[in-house]
């Protein structure tokens, strides 16, 4: 998989995350690792920062359910609008985590 194909694969997977659910950067990387040969949460984060404007970026969070501080207010508003389970200013990862292949 070329770097451009990997960007497309990340964005396609993020587009499939249902409203009210999330994946961590690492989970996105893990879900694509076998196909792509890559397994870097940091790379997924870079892709989302550079190319994620048109994607539901708020559905990809860090492993503890958070966002960078500058994005938290907007992400929180989007999470609330979608009914994403929260604990303070973080996503409740136990309740909200989604994995490809789960029902929508």
UniProtKB/TrEMBL annotation:
One BP annotation, GO: DNA repair
Limits of the Methylated-DNA-[protein]-cysteine S-methyltransferase DNA binding domain: 8-80
Keywords: DNA damage, Methyltransferase, Transferase
Signal peptide: none
GO MF annotation terms: methyltransferase activity
Superkingdom of source: Bacteria
Matching Pfam families: DNA_binding_1
Record protein name field: Cysteine methyltransferase
Organism whose genome encodes this protein: Micromonospora craterilacus
Lineage: Bacteria, Bacillati, Actinomycetota, Actinomycetes, Micromonosporales
